[in-house]
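Students often ask why we bother predicting the structure of a whole assembly rather than each chain alone. The short answer is interfaces. A chain on its own may look different once its partners are present, and contacts between molecules only exist in the joint model. In this exercise we take two input lines together and write out one structure for the complete complex. Read the inputs first and try to guess which parts will touch.
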Amino acid sequence: MAKLTIYYASDIHGSELLWRKFINAGPFYRAKVVIMGGDLTGKGIVPIVRQGEVWRASSMGREIAARSQVELDELEDDILFNGMYPYRCTQEEAETLGGDGDRQDQLFERLAAETVARWLELADERMPEAVKCCFVMPGNDDVWSIDEAFTNGHRVANCDQRVVDLGEGYSMLSLGFSNRTPWNSPRELSEDELGLRIEALISQVPDPRRSVFNLHVPPIDSGLDTVVKLDPEFKPVFRGGQPVMVPAGSTAVRDAIERHQPLLGLHGHIHESKGVTRIGRTVCVNPGSSYNSGQIDGAVIKLAGDKVAGVQFTAG
Amino acid sequence: MAATTDRTTPVPAVFARNATGLVRESSLLNTSAFNILNVTIAYAILFPALFLWQFPGASLLLAGVIGVAAFVPLGMCYALVVAAMPRSGADYVFVGRVFHPAVGFIVALVFMVWVTFWSGLGINFFLTVGLSPQMAALGHPAAATWLTVHSHVIILGIIILLGLGALTAFSTKQAMRLLTSIVVIGMIGTVITGIVLLVTSHSSFISDFNRYAAPYSHSKDTYHAVLAAAAKAGYKGGHPFDFKATLGLIPWFATSFLYVAGQAALGGEIKRPARNSFMAIYITLGSMLGLVLLVFLGLDSGVSQHFVGASGYVSSNVPKAWPLPNAPNYNFLATIAVSSSALRWIMSIAFALWYLPGPILNYIFISRYMVATSMDGVLPERMGRVDARTHTPLLAIGIGLVLSVVSLILLTDDGTLLTVLSAVLGELVGGYLIVSLACIAFPFLGKTKQTYRASPANISVGGVPLITIMGVLSSIVLILIGWRFWVDSAYGLNTTWSKITTFALPAVAVAIYFIRRWVLMARGEDLSLAFKEIPPA
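Now the answer. The structure tokens for the assembled complex follow.
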């Protein structure tokens, strides 16, 4: 009987520590296939400006000063730990950037692309041979500038909008786009468009019943997509002292899973909705994400024949 | 050459993207309201007043101030934990990361078991402490007596527990709406009670009390008869102020304020300073202190501390000399002093309702821990499985319901008012003290040092991490309270049963963890992988 162990994680949002853990996750969990389900890039840039002999940055609501190279390295490490990109600059440059949203975006795209390129080289150097396949998919939050980094032939393959062979008779289709969000992120589609793209990928899958649907956005109303409702200013909505919780997943994803009943659904996107559920015969998994806690939330999934033999959530 | 700037030049802010999940902080009002929902303030007023007689010379007012302030460090600990690990999934995960997953499971199991204790207790209190005395105060003694018959309490209690369990299972939203309504009504009722007591003159209370008690005592001056009975039995009323005795009342406040940390569930997407979280703790405790002091001031001026103590003493120790059908809780005494029937009903219903939120909160509480521990594999997966239709963990709620019914039956048939504190001691030692100790260690351990350093919880006072300071203060408070419970029979907690369960439950938790690990290992699964840290490449 065919057997395969997969390690899946998602939404590391620029945390280099988590990427480095992901590189080593395969043999750690005895998984031959490791998959990163999207949203690799950080959430912002922290300018570190030189003021005299001291480097200063504003982070986590307080001002931090680095008075030596060691402290500066530690500061940048902590910024990366929280999924942000440190950027050393002069006061003047920081002030110019502060007033120019387009320049901020350009800088962000450059830093994100450089970071992903560095990560891929790191994986080339350090990923254990025991890992047979490593697939990474940009998610809805990821800027387009990072895609080019994957074209140079690495151990890590970009599986977005492709059908790939996992081995042992299993295949996987992947789509990093999400449905519409209030943040107008780089890779969003309407539900209709999402549905069309998923169907186009399904048509390439040899056997949907032995396939994995690696879809960044979870199916709607699955318990894997519950978020706090927000008002137009992105503040949580409360009723009677309680936050209002609503589903934010995709109807197109749900339709596709209900119709084609793959073996397994892998999802991210909603960090706080860690869980596993069944839609018909399909086991759907969202390992959640606490990317700025230093631990990588993942799932070790064992496939055996036509069944999902086990799902173990991990915090590595 | 790099330009230099003077030190007053502001440091540029973070350029944050408009990224998914970038959520603004909940308002202070919402965070505070969320906290307040978790604090059943009625217990913190009920117990110190009812057992004032145990500590002659104690000042209710001073005890209230100290008692509330004592829990600020614990609240701050939780606020800092949320700032450091916003998606931590509460104390279970935090403690598991700092110490060991088995220790994290101790916290989870302790809370899961003892909250069901509170559920059974809450329903028992709703009927016997809430409704029954108020029925007597409203002039329905037969109903008051009926509500205290053991079999009636158990049957009615099971029906209520089933109803609240079903509501939580099939519509958590409606359950939370009910909870909020109850808390709002309860708070309004408590304010009314406090004001009634404040505006009632002492002489007026005496005549109201005597008028109410006459049919029971067949005496025209039951008030002074009670005082005389108390003195004859050895009660030292009118004792001069005694600070040590005042401190003796503090442990009673743990029955409410141990649970001040509800905001642990509100962690956000991007870590941010804990300012709102800190302020929410102060607002929560401050507003609760206001309610406590309002009622205590009212009791002092309207009823007199002497009579509060004496009536409590007589009803507990010389029951034959206590003519009324119910113990003299603060609301009962206030209701007697009110002539308006409508106001009496409002005060009575509000007071009784205070004991109902417990089961709702506790079903949600137990579900949260069961889902978290089953996702990690410590408990079997089906215990935390979420139903696809209701989106709730039905089995977890069902287990909570069964345990609540068991605790209701045990408490009704065999318990005393003091048995409640077994839960407090258990949670204090096995839960909150461990969390406080984890807060002390968090900034210093190799595996959590960077998480602390890179987080908004990285605040130092005099070079010492604030979370460590709060952990130390909280630990001291909890150890002192625990020690008082352990050595002083006034709290009824230093029974063999209480002591055994306080430490047996953590031991059971550790055993469950390692047995489960062994069982999974036999099946080729490694439980430790759920928690083991991957070495970074």
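Check your guess against this: Chain B has a mean pLDDT of 86.
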